[in-house]
Amino acid sequence: MEQTAPPFFNRGPSLLTRLAFYAVLSLVLLYTDARFHYLESLRKVVAVVVYPLQQVVAMPGSAWDSVLVHFSTLGTLKQENEELRRTNRLDAGLLQTQQSLLEENDHLRRLLDVRSQYQQRSVAAEILYTGRDPFSRKVMLDVGNIRGIEEGAAVVDERGLVGQITRLYAWVAEVSLITDRDQAVPVQVVRNGLRAVTFGQGSDGTVELRFMPANADIQNGDVLVTSGIDGTYPSGLPVGVVTAIERNPAFPFARIVCAPSAGVHSHRHVLILSRPEAAPEYPIPAEDPAKKITRKPRRTVTTP
Length: 304
Known about the structure:
Elements: H1 15-36, H2 40-115, E1 122-130, E2 138-141, E3 154-156, E4 161-168, E5 173-177, E6 184-189, E7 195-200, E8 207-213, E9 223-226, E10 238-246, E11 253-260, E12 269-273
Antiparallel strand pairs: 1-2, 1-12, 2-5, 3-4, 3-12, 4-5, 6-7, 6-9, 7-8, 8-11, 9-10, 10-11
């Protein structure tokens, strides 16, 4: 009778038996925990104990996710900043355009209010460009003689006299501003009615009262308006305000500088006023026949 040697390792129950046992045990534990909640306390204790280990295990993944989120957020922020800069530039341009349109509309409304103040026919015009001569103060308007514009007509804005039409073409007109050196405007002082003539200074954008005696009744702040005595400008148009007076005893005339009332170097729209009614011609006295001097013919002397 043969005897087999005992196994070197004690293997225990078979694998199938173990599987069945643990399966039944798992089902019993699941039913017991679901029915009576016996393992709730144990689960909480195990969760507290295992939590640090879970954090250590999850740390590499969390760090990698943080790096990805950082670079992704950085790229998104760069794109958003660039988009915001572009939008800001566009909005700034639109805002400036809108502000310019609002100011232009306000200026046009004031011009319409000014039009109702004058009895003369008026034509609205827009300044196209300035003159080519750098030593003159002239601008070109977008209206010409086809609109019935006349040479010598006054050009005004809502604040006063801007200049005078000095040259006409078919579709454009040249305006000499009151600050031009060759432009003279008859004025009078509102305070005392004193008459004078302003001349443009040219470079500094001011006008000057010339040939006024040193003792003339002129003060700083005096308002000058057109006198209307020349038949070119309507009377009462604001021209300027006296800003500086120099009286030197060594000279017979005072130097009086005035700032223009109108926006001579601003705005783009103006009004052209029609010429006032022609004044009667300057009377020329008839020649008295009795005062005529008859000249005797010269006698020619012939020498032999």
